[in-house]
Amino acid sequence: MKKNTVLGLEVPCGPNGVSVITVLQAIQGYYGYLPEEALEKAARELKVPLIDFYSVATFYKNFRLAPQGRREVVTCTGTACHVRGSEKITEEISRTLGVDIGSTTEDGEYSLKCVNCVGACALAPLVIVDGRYYGQMTSLKVRRLFSDNPTKTEQTVSSGLSE
Amino acid sequence: MDLEAPKIKSAEEFFYIQRNYQKQYRDNNRFIVICGDTGCTARNSKAILGNLDRCLKEKDLSETVGTRFTGCLGLCESGPLVIVYPEEILYHRVIPDDMLEIVEETVLEGRIIDRLIYRDPSSGEKYAYARDLPFYKKQVRNLLGGNWKTDPTKIEDYIALGGYEALVKAVTEMSPGEVVQEVKEARLRGRGGAGFDAGLKWEECFKASGRKFIICNADEGDPGAFMDRSLLEGNPHAVLEGLIIGAYATGAREGVVYIRSEYPTAVEKIKTAINRAEELGLVGDDILGSGFGVQIYLSIGAGAFVCGETSALIASVDGRIGEPVQKPPRLVQHGYLDRPTVVNNVETLANVPHIIKQGAENYRATGTEASSGTKIFSLVGKVNNTGLVEVPLGMTLREIIFEIGGGIKEGKAFKAVQTGGPSGGCLPASYLDLPTDFESLTEVGSLMGSGGMIVMDEDTCMVDLAGYFLKFLADESCGCCFTCREGINRLLELVQNISCGRGSLDQLDLLKELAEVVKDSTLCGLGQTAPNPVLSTIKYFEDEYRAHILQNKCPAGVCRALITFEIIESYCNGCGLCKKNCPSDAITGEQKQTHYIDKDQCDKCGICFSTCRNEAILKQ
Predict the structure, then answer these.
(1) Count of C-beta atoms within a 10 Å radius of residue B115
(2) Which residue of B has its CA nearest to A115?
(3) Which of A24, A121, B105, B501 has the largest CB neighbor count within 10 A?
(4) Where in chain B is the domain with CATH 3.40.30.10?
(5) Nearest C-alpha of chain A: how many angstroms from B365?
(6) If pLDDT is split at 50, 70 and 90, which confidence band does B4 have?
(7) Is residue A47 part of a domain?
(8) For domain B564-619, which CATH number applies: 3.30.70.100, 3.30.70.20, 3.60.21.10, 1.10.340.30?
(9) Range of the domain at A25
(10) At residue A155, does pLDDT exceed 70?
(11) Is residue A66 in a domain?
(12) Domain spanning B462-550 has what CATH number?
């Protein structure tokens, strides 16, 4: 597959070369978010109005204009997770970590976000912490997952299929 | 893996290489399959693979016993799954420590380990061999069958099992027009939702001239659906082969796989598949010396449900915001870069090699007259055997949910099944004998959609569910049409009013009226189908809406504003578990004395209800 460089970053090409989306993905892949300065530079380099970058960055859910917490907590809110109680799980995480959906804790440790379905419906309700999946969550498992001794709990939560 | 393999230049060369791969495959028929799908991986199947490799090394079996980390094996509920070949012994809920026993007992001694074999939750019967499981027995796994025996990262496995034969046949024996004709005769209908005739779409593109494109739509956004993800993770070459054949038939020389970023494993698998196919010369210029060539690109989505709509998808491939555009002109006339473009769903493309290989007539033998072939459903929700099922089109909902799915969890009562994702509808028990094909489902106010099938039991509130879908759609509306942008939000407000006990019968009428307006006055499929969940739940479960409005009650005990929690004094032994776990400090009481819930303080999270061991908490 062909690639091109923008801001020194490798950007995969489509039939029409690089696109605003692929450039933003590359920038976010490198910085973890979309820093203003990088967007300005990329816009100049590609001779695309900066507003195009911002309109795309704010339209799609994956793009972030601010840095995220060191650990990313994602709850799945797909239908299967919803009917198995994901709303309560999200609420419990929000309460346990003291963070609202879509924001980051004050100490910059955790970011909490919801996604619409990750397609692992058999594990519903599902929570993903830094890319690791925790299935069949309950409010109590949430508390254990984020307790003082996370390593021990992580094992029990992920290997225990039920309470 | 032979990375230096030269490009295949002719059909003869292909079959020569295939014979080699087949010999390798046959010679290594003792192998162990571990499900490496997202679901099973989340349950530690990578550690199982690691342990297995270690055990095999210790027993000096690494040379004689192969391992395959495959895509979804279907029965996700019982994961992680392990299958021992050639006997096809299926073990479920395996943990890494079980691997030593499996190697010692099953591989070396040929004994079946009783505690690891599948036990049917409803009948209690045990099944040792995968083929005997009731879950698999009624299925026709034409597309998913490949997942069982193929390592998705190895093109060798796919070719050994007959993969790319259809491509060879198409480009060396058939003209593009003949391929189009074959697909048309097979009556292959788009599996992405609308059910449009794929052959017709191809024909129109075939007739157009100049630069053309074919796009594989892998933006599977419907919540509760993961068919496409599993196909891409388990058998990416099947999708790729369909795409290449599609390019040949339509005359497109550039193909794009548009895949959502929420599926990182699928992205990796399809990327590897494209690279391997390029190395062997099955993608690129002059495929098999036929003069036909196609370049395949990968385009990764950035998180927008509306991009599943084809015109929005094309905007997104082009790097713009995913706003749908008015059709006509249809995409097959003015699509990507304003050129003729065909967009096909993942599952549709995966069907193509089967059609070419076995011929349209044989393909049509499965399914119904108007909807031929099989359909993959993701059977999820409150059903015993959650997982992926592939059945001939036209099988009844009852067969799928009760015979394959094993019925409702915990013996509860079936309430409804939701098909078609957020655009679909909810069907009550009286429609269980409805055949699942495109027309039947649409007729009763639901949709086939991409194949999500969410089963609901007595504990699901239909008003809450309608609210859930509206919230989803309100979030995902691109904002282009006023009636979609504002209308869905107003619908949501009305439904939320009802679930809070602030509704009235007038509002119910207003809800229906507004739903019709949204349906009639929006541009794309998202808005036009957005009111379906509301309309279908009102149509079939109006009683529940009325109970919320007239009696201020939520019969399923879900809507928070309408339920209360109370402790039944005679059942409470004062263990204090509820008090300890209550996040809002609403429970009081001394150790070994009856506890009480302060209703003003209680925020109805239900933790006490699920933690009490004495069933002393009353929810009503």
Answers:
(1) 9
(2) B262
(3) A121
(4) 26-137
(5) 31
(6) low
(7) yes
(8) 3.30.70.20
(9) 3-59
(10) no
(11) no
(12) 1.20.1440.230
Q: B379-435: per-residue pLDDT in tens?
A: 998 999 999 999 999 999 999 999 999 999 988 999 999 998 888 999 999 999 999
Among B380, B415, B458, B465, most A C-beta atoms within 10 A, so best to mutate, is: B380
Closest-CA distance, B454 to chain A, in angstroms, reads 7
If one compares B79 and A154, the residue with the highest pLDDT of the two is B79
- Chain B residue numbers with beta carbons less than 8 Å from the beta carbon of A24 are 302
What type of residue sits at position B16? Y
The answer to whether the predicted template modeling score (pTM) of the entire model surpasses 0.90 is yes
Spatial distance between the Cα atoms of A143 and A75, rounded to a whole number of angstroms? 14
Residue B427: name the closest of B287, B533, B306 by CA: B533
Q: B26-137 domain in CATH 3.40.30.10?
A: yes
Q: Give me A76's structure tokens.
A: 């799945």
pLDDT over 60 (residue A151)? no
Interval A28-74: pLDDT, tens: 999 999 999 999 999 999 999 999 999 999 999 999 999 999 999 99
Question: What is the token pair recorded at B43?
Answer: 């349950």
Q: Please tell me the total count of domains within chain A.
A: 2
3-state secondary structure B36-90: CCHHHHHCCHHHHHHHHHHHHHHCCCCCCCEEEEECCCCCHHHCCCEEECCCCEE
Among the partner-chain residues A14, A59, A123, the one whose CB lies closest to the CB of B299 is: A14
- B155-364 adopts what CATH topology? Rossmann fold (3.40.50)
Per-residue pLDDT reduced to its tens digit, B460-489: 999 999 999 999 999 999 999 999 999 999
